[in-house]
Amino acid sequence: xxxxxxxxxxxxxxxxxxxxxxxxxxxxxxxxxxxxxxxxxxxxxxxxxxxxxxxxxxxxxxxxxxxxxxxxxxxxxxxxxxxxxxxxxxxxxxxxxxxxxxxxxxxxxxxxxxxx
Length: 116
Fold this sequence. Notes:
Elements: E1 6-10, E2 16-20, H1 24-32, E3 36-40, E4 43-47, H2 54-70, E5 75-77, H3 112-115
Parallel strand pairs: 1-5
Antiparallel strand pairs: 1-2, 2-4, 3-4
């Protein structure tokens, strides 16, 4: 991890691209967030796929910036790429309880071979 900031910006053509101090780990985080990497004569070009909509692009750019920041990278995210927060009154995602992840026994009277 170097000290150079990673910039996530919307380019002149409307594409969301990444520049700056991207090492191998940062590149893997960006790939997880949906960014593609293309080799060029001057290095690499990292960008989100085209034509998936501004909302999708903003969500993935914000997600990438949050993950990189959590990994202690210095990240500059364009203000127009911030994802819109969920509307007020939207219920939070329900967390699965431990009971939901436990093994359930077979119904009475069912042999092991019948359950498959």
